[in-house]
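Lecture notes, continued. The same structure-token format from the folding unit now serves as the input rather than the output. Read the line below as a description of shape only.
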């Protein structure tokens, strides 16, 4: 292993195992509290200007047709699990970003939520000012938690964004309580659907991110996307390495992106908060948070 690779592996481990203090332009963040302002903006204005939550652009383009009935059906097992067998269990989860502010994790735990994904970063210019409260708070009530990165493939390389993500809370450790980081791939909030990239160039960008993340953490990132966006923008096959987190706001998960035969996570609604299920029993979720790739 090269000196550079060893340096990054040690660097990733520090961020994965330490109590996370998010870096916000040199500002301190005592006791997990968000600073009052960033770049001359109030926190609410800063988040509204820079934060694109997971699924926000999928909902913008594809809509959210979920209903109370569809949400109830989505929480039930369906499709195949990782063993290729009919799924028999699910685990309830949510995902949050800066828009949720300080989250009442005890309340969600009482509601049966057992895992959470927290937005850490976007591009190489944004970190969630509420990340510490959300990431550590979910962990402290007993949830299995993970972090996610909203990708902007037209602003910098996959490797650069993976390194930024890991250095701002997206690391991983085999503690049974930390899920692999998630790469959020969805419609461009700023312009062209596929960020001006061809399908082959987008595939190469995702592989660059994925391989870099794996080199830093010994874990491949979960890929979050919708089947419609993926079919338009990506030509590659990641089914043998990366867990799939599919977005579809309906009562069934529907057709999966290319060559994935099962999903690991499903975001099935954005109401009243982004709601997710893990495709399997709780012990399999623990295994995902424990085992190296």
């Amino acid at each position: 292993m090269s000196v550079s690779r060893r340096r990054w592996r040690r660097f990733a481990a520090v961020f994965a195992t330490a109590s996370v203090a998010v870096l916000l332009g040199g500002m301190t963040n005592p006791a997990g509290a968000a600073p009052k302002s960033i770049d001359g903006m109030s926190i609410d204005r800063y988040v509204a200007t820079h934060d694109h939550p997971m699924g926000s652009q999928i909902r913008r383009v594809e809509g959210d047709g979920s209903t109370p009935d569809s949400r109830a059906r989505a929480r039930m097992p369906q499709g195949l699990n990782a063993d290729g067998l009919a799924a028999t269990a699910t685990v309830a989860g949510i995902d949050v970003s800066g828009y949720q502010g300080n989250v009442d994790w005890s309340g969600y735990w009482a509601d049966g939520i057992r895992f959470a994904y927290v937005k850490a970063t976007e591009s190489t210019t944004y970190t969630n000012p509420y990340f510490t409260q959300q990431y550590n708070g979910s962990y402290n009530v007993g949830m299995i938690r993970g972090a996610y990165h909203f990708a902007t493939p037209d602003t910098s390389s996959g490797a650069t964004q993976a390194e930024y993500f890991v250095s701002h809370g997206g690391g991983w450790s085999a503690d049974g309580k930390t899920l692999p980081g998630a790469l959020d791939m969805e419609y461009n909030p700023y312009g062209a659907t596929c960020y001006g990239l061809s399908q082959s160039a987008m595939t190469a960008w995702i592989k660059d991110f994925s391989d870099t993340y794996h080199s830093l953490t010994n874990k491949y990132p979960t890929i979050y996307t919708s089947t419609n966006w993926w079919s338009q923008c990506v030509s590659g096959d990641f089914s043998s390495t990366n867990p799939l987190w599919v977005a579809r706001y309906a009562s069934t998960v529907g057709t999966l992106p290319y060559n994935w035969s099962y999903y690991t996570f499903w975001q099935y609604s954005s109401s009243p908060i982004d709601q997710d299920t893990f495709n399997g029993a709780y012990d399999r979720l623990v295994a995902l948070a424990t085992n190296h790739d």
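Point for the exam: The domain at 53-289 is CATH 3.20.20.80 (TIM Barrel).
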